[in-house]
Amino acid sequence: MNNKSVTPLAAMIMAALWPGISSAESYFNPGFLSAEDAAVADLSRFEKGSHQAPGEYRVDIWRNDEFIATQDIRFIASDAKSGKATSSGLVPCLDTEWLKRLGLNMLAYPQLAKFKAGECVPMATLIPDSETHFDFAKLRLDISLPQASLLNSARGYIPPNQWDEGIPAALLNYGFTGNHGSSDDNYYLSLQSGLNYGPWRLRNSGAWSYSRGDDYRTSHWNNISTYAQRTIIPLKSELVMGDSNTGSDVFDSLGFRGARLYSADNMYPDSLQGYAPTVRGIARTNAKITIRQNGFVIYQSYVSPGAFVISDLNPTSSSGDLDVTLEEKDGTQQKYTVPYSTVPLLQREGRVKFDVVAGDFRSGSDQQTTPFFTQATLVAGLRDGYTVYGGTQLAEDYTALAMGAGKNLGEWGAISMDVTHARSRLADDSEHQGQSLRFLYAKSLSDYGTNFQLLGYRYSTRGFYTLDEVAYKNIEGYEYADEADGGGKNEPVVQSYHNLRYSKRGRFQVNVSQSLGDYGSLYLSGSQQTYWETNQNNTWYQTGYASGWRGISYSLSMSWSKSVGISGNDRIMAFNLSVPFSTLLGHGYSRTSTLDRAYATFAASNNSDGDATMQAGIGGTLLEGRNLNYSVTQGHSDTNGYSGSANANWQATYGTLGLGYNYDRDQHDFNWQASGGVIGHADGVTFSQPLGDTNVLIKAPGASGVSVENQTGVRTDWRGYAVMPYATVYRYNRIALDTNTMDNHTDIENNVSSVVPTDGAVVRAEFKARIGVRAIITVTRAGRAVPFGSVVREETSGVTSMVGDEGQIYLSGLPLKGKLLVQWGDGKGSQCLAPYTLSPESLSQAVVVASATCS
């Protein structure tokens, strides 16, 4: 039979009629594939199903369905002494170092000791019941290892040898807020700068404030902190030298200037991670919110009317009470304290945490001295769910000793209880001693949808004081807002009040949420601090209900607060409603429709003075990347009559920008916010959105304007660099470039990378971009098409491909001028060289069609 007369359809019919033919080893008949008088290259490597050519491939590596890394792995043919065959015909070449990285217990397999570094280990032979599967289409390598063959480590554990300390870099983070009103101007600039070299991190944080009015003008720079930090991997700890804060496991958090060595929870698996603060509140108008910790302003921004939640707060310490000030447009203020403490101090069996500090006490208050103190704490996990802990604080006028224990109660939750004994000398030289008993409880009633995130109580005797209280210069006094908050005005604003004669008595704090299923959820948060010698107390509570229906969301909330030494109290009730336009229009939501991404809002509130406020407006997102948020509102209040606002916030490649306008009967003002980051590195300077503590520098030279997946507004700059902020430390971070945003002359070999950064690092995720022309080039030799299946490589760029039917070759990333090496067998007689030249206009075309002659 003439092969050229057999069509592919006929071949399929023959395979169906004589299945025995197909059960034998596959054979590629060149006659089915070649055109008239065309030759075919050696196709023997395809004769075993979908087998691929051996070589190095970048793959996602999974061990027992757990992601390990994305990395280049060398693959060899399965007929080598390498293990069982896979669907791709390839098995990975894994040496002993890779087996250690996978967590294999090497001592259980002594025969592995004879293999040298880089030598392939036949896993299927030496490790019984182990398997590998390489999905070439997905570039995914699955490795199955018996659980008994692995080291006993927690799920999600990543060996320290995979941690990346990052590249040398200089960092700068900036945030600027400004307000221009009818009678005054206010500006606030925060700067966080740093240097990274190896494991060392040097950081500085400062803020500049400026206020100007009819009869005053103030300007002030405040250095918040400067410190150096590095990881101590063998101890799984962090060393900090400079300005920082103590931990809060045993004692309340304190600011200090000195040195601290402490166990780092982030170096352990996720199951050992802790707790983060959430600030809730209710604003009646477009208000300015200022949050302090240990006397320093750590957060300042503007919030819209209604209930708000700030969950992305980055405190200067791991804990410590947060003092919240909310300044409304009419000048009134709300002040309350959000307790920030950890949940019960339970540790796994055998886990030991330590924390040692030595330095000068440091706060942002000029009402306090800076005594030298030392602090040491230890927390140890015991058998049967018990944890014991204790510590001491020592200073010239203060001595404290604490001891406590915690217990996992199983279905009943977890509790901890401790007692602290302290001796104190106050500012009037009076000496005191007393005890403080603390009880903490946490429980999640999953079956009922109830979560006691934190429920605690502390009782102190009359003579008990903390080191923070002993540091006060005076027994009684007011602390006024600094110039950052308009302290230059005629009447200074009271920030806080203390009276050491009113020693602390009892403190209760609660954070409870209750899910109601389809009917929404309830929550209650609050705290109350009582004192000896007075019936006044510091109290703050907020409760609320939230739910939704067919895309509509609504909430009802109420807050109440009162402070010792400050007259009056604040009580606010608020109702908020948000309705998507897609619901109003009666059709389904469309992500691509600007109208469907808009929503209507309504907010109403009433405070303790009987002042009612109502506002209605619209908001939504714009632009292709949905990185421009906007809102327009119109309202009315009993005190200021009609009011309105317009705000927009843009998350751009090189930072974020916010603009706003507010007006009422008596005044109008403009406010703006700008923030961003800058990283200087060996390859230049890269601008970005606001940096996090740990960042990823994306390097794809030449690939400009490419978006980063799951990062709003983040694109590579004109050189091909970008920054992905807020990486997760000691965990795998997947960085992927969106290939749909590449232009016609850009291709990236592998658009996914994985990194494991250490705390504070700037790690580099590098991508190899091919910048050039996408072309289909028809290559002929002696008047005939070069053989089908020939391997092709462009000599200058290294771009590779394969010859298709009739000599057609598709290549991407080609230079405008070059030479194609075509090879269809072994030896010099089975190859030729095809020079080609493309016009400059090719760079602007999607795909160029050209021809070349091979000789």
From TrEMBL:
UniProt keyword Membrane present: yes
GO MF term (any one): fimbrial usher porin activity
PROSITE patterns found in the cross-reference section: FIMBRIAL_USHER
Record key words, sorted: Cell outer membrane, Fimbrium biogenesis, Membrane, Signal, Transmembrane, Transmembrane beta strand, Transport
Domain PapC-like C-terminal: 777-839
Membrane topology of this protein: Multi-pass membrane protein
Keyword Signal carried by entry: yes
Gene Ontology CC terms: cell outer membrane
Compartments, as annotated in UniProt: Cell outer membrane
Domain of life: Bacteria
GO BP terms: pilus assembly
Residues covered by the PapC N-terminal domain: 27-177
Secretion signal span: 1-24
Primary localization: membrane
Similarity remark: Belongs to the fimbrial export usher family.
Protein name, UniProt field: Outer membrane usher protein FimD
Upper taxonomic lineage: Bacteria, Pseudomonadati, Pseudomonadota, Gammaproteobacteria, Enterobacterales
